[in-house]
Design a protein that fits this description.
The chain has 271 residues and is α+β, with helices and mostly antiparallel strands. The chain has a domain of 143 residues. The protein has four helices and eleven strands. Strands 4, 5, 7, 8, 9, 10 and 11 form a seven-stranded mixed beta sheet that branches. Strands 1, 2, 3 and 6 form a four-stranded antiparallel beta sheet that branches. A hairpin with a 2-residue loop joins strand 4 and strand 5. The longest helix is centred in the last third of the chain and has 18 residues. The termini are far apart.
């Protein structure tokens, strides 16, 4: 719920019997903003409750509702409808930034006195022709069809009573803004926390890469060793040397009895 400070009221969005939780509630100056997850085609209403004593006699809290930038008059008979305006009557495009918002403007007012109004008589103007819609309204889903039929007759009182009010001086307005968007979009933006990611599945190729990376890290650690430790580490990592194969040939014994001596070479014979 969103509490309006200084008013004693709290506001919530009720969607088909369930309150929508608010996310990322931020209060800044005379504005309170939050986010709610919306679902296409679901009806909603604004629920207001008082958490304090009633207002002083003769005063009340007036709330003006803006839906997607358009003011919604009070009254249970008012239904959502298409309103088309030409570029000449509405040249400003500031309302585009209000798409996807529900804004409440709150003011403390006091009663000036009762007022009466009378509904103008409904006079048939003949065949109804489709009104001209600008391109923005047409793209926004404001389609009008002439293939309609009237329902049962409903009597409406011609006269009614309402209070004439005036804003209490030196009382600032308070704006409560509900931004709405699909839940998937809010999760993607990080406004609503999503489900935790499942642990990764280590495949054999991934495991081999992890072992290789661990070995490389071990080799990198060897660079921080001293010279003596580096030599010992190198001897430890070096493959064992193979024993050299003995290829020496033992000389054959010489038989001096058959040896032929060169000229001038002496021979000593020992008994």
């Amino acid at each position: 719920m969103v509490r309006a400070p200084g008013t004693g009221f709290e506001f919530r969005i009720l969607c088909e019997g369930e309150y929508l939780p608010e996310h990322s509630v931020v209060a800044e100056g005379d504005k309170i903003t939050c986010w709610v997850a919306s679902k296409e085609g679901k009806a909603f209403k604004i629920d207001m409750a008082s958490e304090s004593a009633p207002d002083p006699p003769g005063t009340m809290l007036r709330a003006v509702v803006y839906f997607n930038g358009s003011e919604k008059p009070a009254g249970a008979y008012n239904k959502e409808a298409s309103r088309g305006k030409s570029d000449d009557t509405q040249p400003s495009e500031d309302w585009v930034t209000s798409v996807g918002t529900i804004r409440l403007r709150l003011n403390h007012v006091y009663k000036v006195g009762p007022g009466f109004y009378e509904a103008p008589p409904a006079v048939s103007q003949g065949a109804i022709t489709p009104p001209a819609l600008n391109e923005r309204s047409n793209k926004g889903g404001g389609h009008i069809s002439t293939d309609t039929s009237l329902g049962a007759e409903l009597g409406v009182s011609k006269a009614g009573a309402r209070h004439r009010v005036d804003v209490i001086p030196n009382t600032p307005s308070l704006n409560i803004i509900f931004h709405y968007a699909p839940e998937e979009l809010l999760i993607a933006r990080g406004i609503i926390p999503g489900l935790p990611s499942p642990p990764p599945v280590i495949e054999p190729a991934t495991w081999n890469a992890a072992v290789k990376r661990e070995r490389e890290e071990t080799d990198n650690d060897a660079s921080a060793l001293t010279d003596e430790e580096t030599d010992a580490y190198a001897r430890l990592k070096a493959p064992a040397k193979k024993r050299a194969k003995n290829t020496s040939v033992r000389p054959e014994p010489t038989d001096i009895s058959t040896r032929i001596f060169d000229k001038g070479e002496s021979m000593d014979i020992c008994d």
